[in-house]
Amino acid sequence: MNVENMAVQIDEAFFLIGVAILLIEIVEVIFRGDFKAKTFAEMLTSASTQIPYLLVETFILTGAYGIYWVIALGMPWAIPVTWWSLILVVLLADIIYYWEHRIAHEVRLLWTQHAVHHSSRDMNIVTGVRFGPLEGIWSLIAHIPLALMGFAPEAIVFGVIVVLAYQTWLHTELIGKLGPLEQILNTPSHHRVHHGCDDKYLDRNYGGILIIWDRIWGTFQVEEETPRYGLKRDFNSQNPIRVWFSEWPDLVRDIGRSKSVGEALAILLRPPGGSPEK
Fold this sequence. Notes:
Structural class: mainly alpha
Largest sheet: none
Strand content: under 5%
Radius of gyration: 19 Å
Number of helices: 14
Distance between the termini: 54 Å
Helix content: 55-70%
């Protein structure tokens, strides 16, 4: 079973779906006469985040994923790569993604990376590729439990790719609510909520493929009115450098004001918005 090839094909299929949605989005705003220079600049900024992200993926994480192979060599048991194990690893990777994603919102150090994804005031397919340069490191660590359970490294990578690829089509206002599917699957409607910075929408709908994890763990919110997208604080830049490092100045300032190593660590580990004064 060529698992790597299957993962690539799934990723490419969702990429093509995303491209199709993007083209329709562009045609729609052109016909509405609503395609502004700022919209195009925002898309370019989102796309620009792929430069540092892919550099890290290529030169650091490609080798770092070898940790899964090291763990596999030392495990006294191994789960064979079969259809049932691939389905299981995708399900488990989806659960891990929920917690990986939720923790990235709740730990300020991790939020410095994930905030990049949330920093756009627009919601379109290109927003889906807006990543912090070091986000992949946290993902690598979060999926180590799958290696300890005995899943083959290629199966783990397959699960990670499928969960991420599925989310390509979620970043759009073009698709409305999808009826009964809204009860089980993560949909564009649910993900628009996740990108909202309104109080009622903040830190909701963390799921990757399935929305049932949010329903189980109490973070689900239905889309009622159109969210205001972006960060809670006033941030609306199309400068790639500012977007890549948007959270670092305030974090460095707060650490500099801390009165002890313990307080500095608390700032790194507490939710975004923490400061020495708080």
